[in-house]
Amino acid sequence: MKNKEVEDIQNINRKPIVAVLITGAFLAILNQTLLATAIPHIMQDLNLTENTAQWLTTIFMLVNGIMIPITAFLIDTFTTRRLFLIAMSAFTLGTLVCAFSPNFAVLMTGRIIQAAGAGVMMPLMMTIFLLIFPIEKRGSAMGMVGLVIGFAPALGPVISGWLVEQYHWRSLFFLVLPLAVINIIISYFVMKNITERTFPKVDYLSIILSTLGFGGLLYGFSSAGNYGWTDTVVISSMIIGAVSLTFFILRQFKLKQPILEFRIFKNKIYTMTTIIGMITFIGLIASETILPIYMQNMAGFSALESGMMILPGALIMGFMSPINGRIFDRFGARYLLIIGLSLLTITSFLYTNLTPDTSLSYLTIVFAVRMFGISMIMMPATTQGLNQLPRRLLAHGSAMTNTMRQVAASIGTAILVTIMTTTAPITEEQALPMEMVHGVNMAFYVAAVISLIGLILSLLIRGGTPAEERDRMKMEGNE
Q: Which has the closest alpha carbon to 187: 73, 351, 20?
C-alpha cells in the first residue's frame, strides 16, 4: 500500500529540491578540506601542537564515517523532509559553535556536531536523486553529484588559504554559516517527502558495533600514516575495528531489517562498480595527498602553488561530471569506465618519474588529465551499480557506496603515505631531495597497479544502457 506521507514523484518540481540538496552537500564536503591551510593559524591562536590540531580534520572524517553506514536506517525511520532539516540544522549548529569557539574543546565539539549532520547529507542526496529521476536520466542527475564531489574538496584549501591570510580563521565558519541558514529556510518550504518509511526496529547493538567497527578502522588507518603501523593505538584501533565490523556484518545477516544491507553485494555488477569506485577514490586521494607533500617539502613550491596545481583539474572534473552523466544515460557506463581508468593508470605512471626539478606545468597538466579520467569513472560507476538495485534497497546501496569510499580513502592514504616514507633510501639523518622523491615515485607505482586492477574489472562489466536496464528490471518485477 502506498505510504500517504510520500509525495507523488511524477508531480514533484525537482529543481528546487535538487538545488537545496546540492547546496547542502557542497557545504558539507567543503568543510572536510576547509581547515586544511588554516591549521597553522589555529595552532598559533589556541596554542596547540600539530598532533592535537590535526584532530580537527580527523574527528570530522571519523564522525562522518560513523554516520554514513547508519544513514540507510535513518532514511527508513524518518521522513525525507525531517531528516534533511535535522541533518542540515545539526551541520549549521556545529558551524555556529565553531565560529564562536573560545578554545580547542569547544571547537572540537562544533566539528563533531558539523560532521554528524554532514555524514547524512551525501547518502540522503544520492538516494533522493535515484528516486525522483527515472533510471534513464539518473546519469545526468548523478553527474551533478559528481560536480560537488570533485569541486568542493579542491575549493576548500584555496578559499581557506586566501581567507586566513586576510582575516581571522573563524571567518571560514562565518562564510559557511549564512549559506547554511539560507539553505535551511529554503528547504523548509521546498523539500518534499520522497522516501518511504519502513520503520525498522532500532538495533542498538548494531549501531554500537557499526560505530566501533568503522570508527576503529578509519581512525587506525588514518593514524598509521602519521604514527606508523607498529604504534599501540593504531594496532588497537584496527583490531577493535576489524572484530567489531565482523560481528556487525554477521549480525546484519540475522536481522529481518538490517541497519545496513550487505546482501546487495550478491549483485556482481554492484560489487564490481563499488570496488572500481573505491579504487578511483584511492587514486584521487593519492594525488591530492601526496603531490602537495612532494611539492612543498621536496620540490620547493609554495602552499599556494600546490593549491593552484589542483584547481584546474578540480574545475575540469566539476565541468565534465554532468556531461559524462549525459553520456552515461545514452551509452551506459562500460566505455566511460574503460577510458577513465586507462587515463587514471597512465597518469599514475607519469607521476613515477618525478624529480625535485619537475615543472609546475607538467604536474598541473598531468593532474588535469587525471581528474578528467576520474570524472568518467566516479559517478558513472556509482550509478551503474545502484541501477542494479530495487527501489527499496537504494538507501542501503547509497549508504554502502559512500561508506566504502570513506574506508578506501582512509586505507589508501595510510598505505601510500607509508610507502612514500619507507621506500625513500635515507642514508643520512637529513635525506637529499632526490632520495625523498624516490618514495613519492614508488607510491605512484603502487597507485598505478591499483588503477590497473580497476581497468581489468571495468572490462568485465557488461551492463547495458540505463533504458535497457529499466526494461530488464520491469521484466523481473524488480524496479
A: 20
